[in-house]
Amino acid sequence: MKDEVENREDRVANLKGMGCSRKRVEDARFTQGKGNYVDDIKLDGMLFGDFVRSPYAHARIKSVDTAAALEVPGVLAVLTAADLEPLGLHWMPTLAGDKQMVLADGKVLFQGQEVAFVVAEDRYAAADGIELVEVEYEELPVIVDPFEALQSDVVLREDLVGEDGSLPDGAHGPRKHHNHIFTWEAGDKEPTEEVIANAEVVADESMYYHRTHPCPLETCGCVASMDKVNGKLTLWGTFQAPHAIRTVVSLISGIEEHNIRVISPDIGGGFGNKVGAYPGYVCSVVASIVTGKPVKWIEDRMDNLMTTAFARDYHMTGKISATKEGKITALQCHVTADHGGFDACADPTKFPAGFMNICTGSYDIPTAYLEVDGVYTNKAPGGVSYRCSFRVTEAVYFIERMIEVLAIELDMDAAELRRINFIKKEQFPYTAALGWEYDSGDYHTAWDKALTTVDYEGLRAEQAQRVEDFKAGKTRKLMGIGLSFFTEIVGAGPVKNCDILGLGMFDSCEIRIHPTGSAIARLGTISQGQGHATTFAQILASEIGLPADSITIEEGDTDTAPYGLGTYGSRSTPVAGAATAMAGRKIRAKAQMIAAYLLEVHDNDVEFDVDRFVVKGAPEKFKTMKEIAFAAYNQAIPGIEPGLEAVSYYDPPNMTYPFGAYVCVMDIDVDTGVPEIRRFYALDDCGTRINPMIIEGQVHGGLTEALAVALGQEIAYDDMGNVKTGTLMDFFLPTAWEVPNYETDFTVTPSPHHPIGAKGVGESPHVGGVPCFSNAVQDAFRPFGNRHTNMPHDHWRIWRTANELGLHD
Amino acid sequence: MPDKMHIKLNVNGKDEEFLAEPRELLIYTLRERLNITGPHIGCETSHCGACTVTIDGKSVKSCTMFAAQASGKSVTTIEGIGGPDDLHPLQEAFKEHHGLQCGYCTPGMITRATKLLEENPNPTEEDIRFGMAGNICRCTGYQNIVKSIQAAAAEMNAAAASSSEAVGNKTVEAAE
């Protein structure tokens, strides 16, 4: 065998397994314009559907007249709620236990809400038809403020109020008011209040984490094709969770699940936008059934920003108490959560505020209490996790701002305050006051590495000098040093406490080894740019000893892939990555028996070595995995079935807890409000690193989305409920010109419960980045009395802060 | 409905001729009529650049140009820049330097970058960031896109230098 001349190092390199910066296998087609996104799908006779949308944020619908639209050449059908009602499809369940109108049923609750669905031969005819659908509206009072909603007599959701005015319980328990959705609590209220009441030092602050949007470059869309001959429905779409979509479609349409095939083709970015189920999917399916033809629906950018999947909109009030020396003693948080017209948040069932109860952050806080009130308003539904695990961005922003405010209260350095309160390495696994068990961490090492690398002391000295120069009139620029230390909670999750619509949040991998020593593996997840086809093959290469280049990874087709809950919340590596490793180990276990048979020794007398099994103590006697694969298909081995396949469904025993230390150095022109990012250092600890190149790319991207959210990106409404940021003219997406170069760094603290120790990384930079950018802005103004200002810190708001602090006088 | 217009285009070296409504957008022509799906739609307002093509030597956002406005002109899309057997150095560099993730912006990004490097074969990082600011990427944070374009520029300049050297040698030989 040629293999014999290869040394071990070469054999390891040949696998391109875990730890190497393998180039991406996806890129050949993408760089040549040969990606296959949903809007690239074309089927014979395919029609195009699009929505008539409400211009009003709150209105009763008196009539919908479709006659003129149906006269337009090329328009085949116009669906309204009246058409869907006999099918029971005019409303649909949301992921949060609420229900949502598919098409306006008597009223509309937000601007842009879907009123009618025009089906036509092409997009132009559909647009012509939309123009001619006549809808008569009666305007109703609009509420865009959740605090006002909880006081108002105006009932937004009449369907959730009894005829006698009673308030039936919602999906998450009793409701306090007709516009109230739920109250959710974690921790101990009275002990926390008591500690705070008697504390030496207390800092309190209110902050608004504004409404924004994931805004992937590709909007949401689908193609539904009902084949009436064989009774099968095929649905292609931008689905981050194709299997869950199949189950939902089956439950609401009554079509048996085996007759539904859901396919997620290439997805042009997701960031949480493509987790939920949207009216466009339901209407496309119905339209395909009605017309007997395939129907495509693709959002335009305005539809996307106005109607599908906003993120955040959390009004947070906190109190944090400490000793005079800065040791934190308690934390209290209340959130008023604006969920819009329907509660369509994408969270595990038992967590209506997601994992907001990770808000004690990276700190050893003995007592804490969190209370979240969900509220209906006349805004779009959504509440998705935009590049974060469920509500973790909010939680980390909250604690990282509270730490800064406490530092001001204590007149203490914020880096030192963090250091003295970190959970210590020896405390892991650490059970936090709000319930989570952190798996592993070494925060002090990461923090010290970060502060040393950026010369933190030097930066503070420079900043002090800058303040002196500013006061002396020598400069008009202030310097801000933004700090953040975050702990994420990702990899949802253990079936015992995590489900979506009753579906446990395990994930899966199925592997087939081909006779000549290559393989295909299919997973329940779906890549949206993360590079799964590259990295999952690396995990497998290391586990089964076949080169990553010989392993095809396939995702997103529910007819072929094993059931899984999809890709969001950084769950692919923690859950499906674990399933992949476990399935690989099943392959290896069978391969060991085959090798032992071929080598004529006992199973226990062979051991795995990179790409082969060797006889213990006799390394010259071995069988490569390639040889073993062939033997699995051509030899009758007593007691062993032919073939070499495995499947694993992995139910994680715990979440994983990636963490990181970020520092941002910013210069701010007080006269223009323009911030200039001079330096950004990001240290991430995501446990075992599978592909450093891809990790670095994820960090760059997540930080840039954090920059966007912190410095300008916003879905803003006026008092009438009009969306003021419906195009990319108004909705800030940073270009290459606004984005700095980032310095990346890492420590490695493996997850003790994950088969390969990996924790997930895609969302960390966003979660840690937002408070870091925000803290940099706020820190620049700290010497002049700033305590807290709300994001987004666009130029105008920064200028206003400077103005309010008297810096323009 | 207004009369259809007679439109002639050369797309990626191939002549196309068809009747279309005056309102038909070029991106629609490319994607729906000609099945050229490399250029994508991201915003419909000229901001994101996913639809970038080259028309008579200039970068153009094809989502906000009517097909009729392009009549008589030559259009190059990503499909005309390089294929499996003749990858453009930019396509190679984007793969090599992880200049893409979801891939949705990539065709427009590379198409724009080909023009950038034609206009300025030795761009500074600032030149690249400014020259690419009409193309939005949501995944990469641009750092590796900049790196990819710098690498492609170096590669193309090296190739140009060696070919002009070769030409130079030939000239000398001919003179002898």
Structure description:
- By secondary structure, chain A is of the alpha+beta class.
- Chain A has 3 domains: 2-35 and 507-650, Aldehyde Oxidoreductase, domain 4; 38-142 and 219-267 and 275-307, Alpha-Beta Complex (Aldehyde Oxidoreductase, domain 3), CATH 3.90.1170; 387-489 and 655-804, Aldehyde oxidase/xanthine dehydrogenase, molybdopterin binding domain (Aldehyde Oxidoreductase, domain 4, 2-Layer Sandwich), CATH 3.30.365.
- Helix content of chain A is 28%, strand content 25%.
- In chain A, the strands form 9 sheets. A 7-stranded mixed sheet of chain A has the order 3-7-1-14-11-12-13, sandwiched between helices. In chain A, strands 9, 10, 15, 16, 17 and 18 form a 6-stranded mixed sheet that branches. In chain A, strands 21-31-32-33 form a 4-stranded mixed sheet, sandwiched between helices.
- Chain A is globular and about 85 Å long.
- Chain B is an alpha+beta fold and 176 residues long.
- Chain B folds into 2 domains: 1-80, Roll (Ubiquitin-like (UB roll)); 83-176, DNA polymerase, domain 1 (Orthogonal Bundle).
- Helix content of chain B is 40%, strand content 14%.
- Chains A and B meet through α2 and α18 of A and α1, α2, α3, α4 and α5 of B.
